[in-house]
Amino acid sequence: RLYDLIEYIRAGFDDGSDSSARQRYLQMRCVPLLAIDECDGPRFTAFAEEFRRVFLDDRYRMAIGGNAYTILAMNTDPATLPGDIYDRLRDGRFIIHHNTAPSMRPAL
Predict the structure, then answer these.
(1) Which of 20, 40, 91, 101 is the most buried (most CB within 10 A)?
(2) pLDDT level of residue 27 (50, 70, 90 thresholds)
(3) In this structure, are residues 60 and 95 in contact, taking their beta carbons and an 8 Å threshold?
């Protein structure tokens, strides 16, 4: 989930962390195939919004060179994302699954 990714990076700022936020960012940025669920789920603080924007831009640039692939899953329409993010997503270098199916949770 995007929330978990943000929290993983944020934990790198804590004293006593085994790796810095920058090291964690570079580690996650370079994963060849990354699937991120609930991209519309977290509450977007200024940190989270900036992280999402920069991280997806880095993944986009890596995709241009064929060095990384990103799959995003979200429940809302991708067009509701900020314009600069949506512009990168809609050129086909990301795989977006926009879940429009009704929830199966009530049946469980």
Answers:
(1) 40
(2) very high
(3) no
Q: In whole angstroms, how far apart are CA 53 and each of 14, 83, 88?
A: 22, 11, 10
Q: Where are the beta strands (DSSP E) in 24-105?
A: 33-36, 69-74, 94-98
State how far the alpha carbon of 73 is from the alpha carbons of 29, 58, 70, in Å.
18, 18, 10
pLDDT tens, position by position, 48-76: 889 989 999 999 999 999 999 888 888 88
Cα–chain-centroid distance for residue 1? 8
* Secondary structure (3-state) at 33: strand
SS3 content of the chain, % helix, strand, coil (to 5): 50, 15, 35
At 85, list the tokens: 């993010």
Q: How far apart are CA 84 and CA 86, in angstroms?
A: 6
